[in-house]
Amino acid sequence: MKTSLYRAETRGHANHGWLDTYHTFSFADYCNPERIHFGALRVLNDDTVAGGKGFGRHPHDNMEIITIPICGGVKHADSMGNGGVINQGDVQVMSAGTGLFHSEFNASPSEPVNFFQIWVFPNRKNVTPRYEQKQMDFQEHRNRLSEIVTPHPSPHALWIYQDAWFGIGAFDRGAGLSYELKDSGNGVFAMVIQGSFRLASVDLAARDGLGIWEAKAFELEATSDDARILLMEVPMA
Question: Which end of the chain is more exposed for a tag (fewer CB within 10 A), N or C?
Answer without folding.
Answer: C
